[in-house]
Amino acid sequence: VVVARRAAAARAAAARRAVASVVVAAHRRVAPVAAPAVARRAAAPGQVADGRSLYLRPWRIDLTVRDGVPRLVPAAALARIISRALATGGAPRPASIGLILSNDRELAELNAAHMGKAGPTDVLSFPLLDPTAYPAHPGGPGGRGRAPTPAVPTSAAATPTVTAFALPPGARPHLGDIVVSVERAIAQATEGRGGWRGDRRWSPMDELRLLVVHGTLHVCGWDHAEPIEESAMRSLEATLLDG
């Protein structure tokens, strides 16, 4: 029975990798692209990772901290922030989400591979569900200020989601992953390039919390390419950080 369950879990994971078209969204710079999920890959040689899972019902937050990355905010506090953002964003439940705290080197690699841009960025999100899997919001798909998204997709390839296959009993769908450069968060905060508009000097802890909330909302289908959605997203982020 145990072997059968493991085999079923392996098949489900393989199916998710096969059908998931991952949208990568960068803080302040948005250019969604289709790409294979790499955020949950093993650490590169010399980049040892410390991982743990935190459970805040109905969510499981899989936290990975790369070797040498400063722990600015306690893991439990980051998990609470993500939990609030998922609940507010109407994420399917129960579910899991990944948070990887990394450095400029890894973010530069991901930025080049998925955004086609040189140099590190502060946060990248890898959603596994289509934005239409979440409730409508101002400026978003089907929300006020933007044309509604058709309820029935024209093809499975156009709007893949992790619900396209059966999960093993008791398994949680994985919503996606967030990768943050703590190194970049520290630099932006101390050099006065932090905050929503990139012009704020504040604590690196506050900058990290903002990036985590920002990345979580991207996983939940939020974007800031349109003024209406950008304004609503910034307002929601402020509310979540004050909570």
Question: Please, could you describe this protein's structure?
Answer:
The protein is of the alpha/beta class. It is built from six helices and eight strands; from the N terminus they run H-E-E-E-E-E-H-E-H-E-E-H-H-H. It has helices at about 1-20, 75-90, 105-115, 180-190, 205-220, 225-240; strands spanning about 20-25, 25, 35, 50-55, 60-65, 95-100, 125, 175-180. The strands form two sheets. The protein has a six-stranded mixed beta sheet, with helices on both faces. A two-stranded antiparallel ribbon has the order 1-3. Strand 4 (about 50-55) and strand 5 (about 60-65) form a beta hairpin. Helix 2 (about 75-90) packs parallel to helix 5. Residues about 1-40 and about 145-165 have low confidence and may be disordered.
Largest sheet: 6 strands, mixed
Task: Report strand order across the widest sheet.
Answer: 2-7-8-6-5-4
Based on Cα principal axes, name the global outline: globular
Write down the secondary-structure element order: HEEEEEHEHEEHHH
Distance between the termini: 44 Å
Report mean pLDDT, rounded to a whole number: 79
CA-atom Rg in angstroms: 17 Å
Number of helical regions:
6
Relative helix content = 25-40%
Strand content: 15-25%
Unreliable stretches (pLDDT < 50, length at least 5) are: 1-39, 146-165
Number of strands: 8
Strand pairing plus helix content: what structural class?
A: alpha/beta
